[in-house]
Amino acid sequence: MNFGSDAKKTGKMKKTILVLSGLFILISALTASAHPLGNFSVNQYSRLEVEKSRIKIRQILDMAEIPTFQLKNEIDTNKDETLSKEELNAFAEKIAPQILANLSLTVNGQSAAINPESKNVALQEGAGNLPTLRFEWNLSSEISNLSEVNQVKFENTNYAERLGWNEIVINRVGKISVFDSNAFGSGITDELKSYPAENLNAPLNERTAVFSFSDGVIPSNAKALQNRDGHTNNALQKDKFAELIAVPEITPTIAFFGLLLAIGLGAMHAMSPGHGKTVVGAYLVGSRGTVKHAVFLGLTVTITHTLGVFALGLITLFASNYILPETLMPLLGFFSGLIVFYIGLSMFKSRLFSVLGWEKAAVHHHHAEHSHADSSDAFTHTHDGHTHSHLPPEEVSWKSLLGLGISGGLLPCPSALVLMLSAINLGRIGYGLILTTAFSFGLAATLTAVGLIFLYGGRVFSGSRLAENRIVKTVPVFSAFVITFLGAVICWNSF
């Protein structure tokens, strides 16, 4: 027997197993946390921002693990196997002229020069301990050959031979109108920071953008710039409410119409999603509410919203070094949702117990002995020895109404805050206070009207034979559940 030969074979097998194990670990690492578009991809993002006489370009280049590895020797000039910040910046400076040369911009048929303004380059951790490279350039092009309507063409031919994601976004500034564009006004990847999983098999390949712009309204036969969801891009549209304070001169007539417009805008704001209409309606379904209750609710919303705008405005002016206003908004939203959740949960419990007949025996005995003692006896009936009422399950609680009103007005409208800050800046604090109060009044009046509609609708409905239906009797319970659910959703969204 040749033991030496067997030992050599065993040694070779061990080496083979170790090599295969190493390759398996390396492949697992690469596939587990590889670049979303693949290790070989070179991805690009271009955002054009159109101003009156200048186009700003944000150009981003995202290189996956393999292209970065291929460039390592070229970047590592001192050959110490590490890529320092100085080496990365030097390489970014080196490739910038070629990157710019492959970006083409023409305005009204004439070539426009693209000039670099600033840059940033960084290494990011990739798969298998391999880095990825991200370059960011801020560029601009001054344009002078302008007409009433201007045609623009932008083309990016960088790394045309490489597989990857290529995205172009068009933005506008101020009164500039962009139209007849084959590119969109919104992005997908947040500047190549988050790739959509559903599109990785067919990556976006936008390399050319053609559009028109003008300094004013778009022509009647033109198509306005669209976002990717199909809606018109209105991201830079002026805030009508905030503009009320910026009129050149405040005359009695302007002040009067400004007041009416503020009320109208507040009402329209209340009709937009997320302003308590559903909560108010669900609360009043199956309750013994009155006009007085609805008015109280409206006043509470008005006062809370107005005070909230004033308080947030003061924080923005005097305490923003310590408390950021934008960090307070989610907190206020959370407390608003918490109030709604508590009210809904309490109502759901009481209404469910009422429908199931889980009242205390003493209460039933009291109704049996005093069924004619008050005005509610007309709604009380006895069937098979059991006395019950067809009135709604509980009286309206002033405490719950107060909580509901506070929750409806607790989160200040950003438009109202902008108006208040503009008023302070222009020295028109009094007029700003009046407009803000009018806006809050319009908001509250709409919620109050919704409440009244549900109240009177409920009264008409309760007088019909349908009120005897068991399913119908569960509607107040379901409405209380809706309030509880909405409160939980508001809390969740605040995070």
Key terms:
495 residues; 17% strand; 14 helices; five-stranded antiparallel β-sheet; 12 strands; five-stranded mixed β-sheet; alpha+beta; 2 domains; 49% helix
The rounded Rg comes to 33 Å
If you average the pLDDT, what whole number results? 76
- Order the strands across the largest sheet as they lie in space: 5-6-2-1-8
Give the end-to-end Cα distance, rounded to a whole number of Å: 74 Å
How many H/I helices?
14
- Overall geometric form: globular
Structural class: alpha+beta
So what's the oligomer here?
single chain
Draw up the topology in text.
Elements: H1 3-32, E1 42-50, E2 54-63, H2 65-75, H3 85-101, E3 103-107, E4 110-111, E5 115-125, E6 131-142, E7 150-156, E8 166-172, E9 176-179, E10 208-215, H4 240-243, H5 252-271, H6 277-284, H7 291-318, H8 325-356, H9 361-369, E11 380-383, E12 386-389, H10 398-409, H11 414-426, H12 429-462, H13 470-473, H14 475-494
Parallel strand pairs: 1-8
Antiparallel strand pairs: 1-2, 2-6, 3-4, 3-7, 5-6, 7-10, 9-10, 11-12
Describe the overall structure:
With 495 residues, this protein is α+β, with helices and mostly antiparallel strands. The chain folds into two domains: 42-237, no CATH class; 245-367 and 385-494, no CATH class. The protein has 14 helices and twelve strands. The strands form three sheets. Strands 5-6-2-1-8 form a five-stranded mixed sheet. The chain has a five-stranded antiparallel sheet with strand order 4-3-7-10-9. Strands 11-12 form a two-stranded antiparallel ribbon. Strand 11 and strand 12 form a beta hairpin. The relative contact order is 0.11.
